[in-house]
Recover the amino acids of this structure.
């Protein structure tokens, strides 16, 4: 796991800068500082949940909720939280939101809760959440932290959905459980390895490679 | 105050107490529903394996009512299986099965006709197998193999075979890429069936249908 966390910078919150700042946060989270292929955070869950698109989607909704709200909550408490126990407080806040999601799924969407199994609980250990709370939540006002959390989670979501689509399609010939023409037919010999754990490594590596190459080209053009 | 030595302790305590009380309150609030969901999942599985009971799109309440009216909880008389009766005659059994899967316990129900040998269907209501692999045991592709299989009276009641191989009357195909889940599930089903069968000794079987 890469340890370097992009500091995210200290965003000025003055009204004039607000618009360009939020635009910057959106772009940073989705592309320039994407949690998966730039920060290389949260790889554990990327590898674990991406073999079915539907599971990935629900997991990502859970992450968007947790990351934006916990980052905002950490930010609200940032002036009172003693530095030496801030990690404990952050973990507590993250765990709180995750337990709430878990309870809501168990009570109102039991089918999804069973099919996600332990993955929801594992959002607590998702490095992105802790990483963004540390990098942005502890040093910015709640609004900025919320936006930053949300767009980092969305950046994570779109990469995960892409990986899940590739894996489910090649491994099982379906998308969201529905058979896809050709891939579910007799001419496509399903690559079981794609839905098995190794498939996650291959797909993640290829996706990161492609996105990084595009990113490098953009940077070169910018210069 | 922030610089005082006791402040971090007090702060942690207050924050923990605040968030815990919200979670506890919320858990209390949803507790009943979560429990009801668990019961309902079992009841639905039972109705699924008994012939002609479950219709598409039935509401939770309808499923629960039907379970209470027509089937009822497992009873001792039929060695721990739920029984479907029609005009006093036993039509089918629904035998709960349970055991350790690859990651977590697998719980399900096997339906058997009154001869206690012909399988009507199988359904699972709790499992945490690998999505896309072991979890395929819940899909129709796997479960549809069971209706009509005859449990053998000697040796292994049901055998799992390699996908693609020819099948006998008591054999089904295992799940591709999920050897661990398949082996464990085979054992869970067989253990339950063997134990259940042993309870129907000629002396003890009070309501034998054969």
């Amino acid at each position: 796991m890469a340890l370097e966390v992009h500091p995210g910078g200290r965003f000025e919150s003055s009204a004039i800068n607000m618009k360009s700042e939020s635009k910057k946060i959106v772009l940073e989270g989705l592309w320039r500082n994407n949690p998966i292929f730039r920060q290389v955070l949260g790889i554990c869950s990327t590898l674990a949940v991406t073999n079915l698109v539907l599971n990935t989607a629900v997991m990502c909704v859970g992450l968007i909720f947790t990351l934006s709200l916990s980052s905002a909550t950490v930010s609200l408490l940032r002036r009172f939280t003693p530095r030496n126990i801030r990690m404990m407080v952050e973990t507590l806040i993250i765990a709180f939101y995750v337990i709430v999601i878990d309870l809501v799924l168990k009570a109102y969407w039991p089918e999804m809760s069973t099919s996600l199994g332990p993955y929801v609980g594992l959002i607590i250990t998702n490095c992105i959440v802790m990483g963004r709370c540390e990098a942005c939540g502890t040093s910015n006002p709640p609004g900025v932290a919320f936006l930053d959390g949300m767009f980092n989670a969305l950046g994570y979501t779109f990469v995960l959905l892409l990986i899940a689509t590739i894996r489910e399609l090649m491994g099982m010939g379906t998308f969201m459980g529905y058979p896809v023409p050709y891939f579910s037919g007799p001419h496509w010999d399903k690559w079981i390895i794609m839905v098995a754990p190794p498939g996650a490594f291959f797909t993640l590596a290829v996706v990161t490679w492609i996105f990084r190459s595009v990113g490098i080209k953009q940077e070169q053009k910018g210069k | 105050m922030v610089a005082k030595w006791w402040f971090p302790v007090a702060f942690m305590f207050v924050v923990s107490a605040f968030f815990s009380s919200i979670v506890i309150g919320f858990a209390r609030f949803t507790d009943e529903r979560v429990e009801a969901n668990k019961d309902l999942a079992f009841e639905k599985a039972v109705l699924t394996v008994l012939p002609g009971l479950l219709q598409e799109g039935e509401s939770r309440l309808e499923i629960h009512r039907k379970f209470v009216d027509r089937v009822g909880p497992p009873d001792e008389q039929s060695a721990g299986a739920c029984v479907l009766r029609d005009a006093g005659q036993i039509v089918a059994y629904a035998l709960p099965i349970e055991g350790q899967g690859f990651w977590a316990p697998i719980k399900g129900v096997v339906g058997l006709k009154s001869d206690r040998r012909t399988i009507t269907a199988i359904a699972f209501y709790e499992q945490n197998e690998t999505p896309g692999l072991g979890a395929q045991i819940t899909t129709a592709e796997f479960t549809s193999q069971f209706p009509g299989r005859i449990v053998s009276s000697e040796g292994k009641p049901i055998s799992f075979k390699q996908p693609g191989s020819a099948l006998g009357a008591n054999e089904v195909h295992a799940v591709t890429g999920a050897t661990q889940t398949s082996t464990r599930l085979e054992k869970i089903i067989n253990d339950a069936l063997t134990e259940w069968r042993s309870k129907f000794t000629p002396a003890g079987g009070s309501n034998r249908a054969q």
Notes: The beta strands of chain A are 174-175, 178-179. Residues 21-164 of chain A form one domain.
